[in-house]
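Q: Could you write out the predicted structure for this multi-component system? I'm mainly interested in how the pieces pack against one another.
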Amino acid sequence: MGTQFIRQGEARATFLDTLSPESLVVRSQLEELLRVRVQDPAATIGRDLRFVGVTDPITKPELVRSEEFGAWYFVDGFDDPTIEMFGGQPIPDKIRRDLRNLANTGIQLDRIWIGHEVPPDWRDGAPRPQLVPDQPKIRGADEILMKVSHAVVRGAAATGRGVVKGTALTVAGAGLVAGSAFAAGGAVAGLDPVLLGGVDHPSVPATGWVLLAQWDWPEE
Amino acid sequence: MNEPLPALRDSLLHRFVDESIAYEETGAPIPRPLLLYATAGGAAMVLAAFSITIWPSPHTIAHSGFFLIAKAALAGFVATLKVLALPLALTGVTTLAITGYLYLRPRRRIGWHYACVGELVAGAGSLGASALVFVAIVATVIIWMLIFTAGLALLGRVLIALAE
């Protein structure tokens, strides 16, 4: 979904071109600034950083919707809620290496924002959706651990039925209820993000953006 | 790999990458059922430790006339359990406290997931071991009831025979 959103030209107008159409001069100046400060250095390592639009300065998280591209939650890359949850912005290792190489070219950004795809029916203020999915291998390990746990509880319940019948049934019942909740939770998958780099116009409140990276979280 | 010039190390993108973490190292939250099982395991350890303290002493088992079979083995087993009761209680309380901490401050490393299962297995095992003593007592009571019933039946037959 994230890939589609950026690759289609309409997305520029839909999502990121919030600057008035009269500001064509500002737009061209920002495009030139982006070329010199970001795109040309990136090109030295063969990276083509696509220009994605010009916006008024974004100062707070924004929820942007489109019928075609769904709902996206844009937030400053240093204030992303996932940072608190994980102790840092979680990024696939390969993308991190690419970003480090990109940084080493000397590109100069004023802003880094991340756009999280969110469920279409999500409303700001509602419980936050799972923006980063659990790793598939850990989900697999958890499934095995749950089976082991269920077996232990079932075994304890069966063994102890005649001894501590009430207790065993209570534990087994709790396990059954909890198991259902786990199955429902396991279906939750993270939604794909995009990483944007912005350069501010030196004299006008406007920011030009390029796409730094995008990735798909692993499926289950 | 192209090494950056020193002045470029402090760029915004460098800072962003430096402050990020590899997704592959993020782990996953402990599933709620595992936490519940861990809690049950910790509670089972405490319950087992408590139950061990109320079982008859090994000396009583070995020298009383109540236990009829495998007295020595049962006495030895209970002696071992009595030695383990205090460490088991401490372990149970500690693991319960740690599990409570995991509810409040979720941890994501896979090791914690395994620890929860370990707590459940330890709890089930210790409670099972303690329950064996209870089973032995119940089995002995049943044997005594059978003996008593058989004795009564025999006495009845004798009395009937004498009456005839």
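A: Regarding packing and overall arrangement: Helices of chain B lie at 12-19, 32-54, 58-63, 71-104, 110-163.
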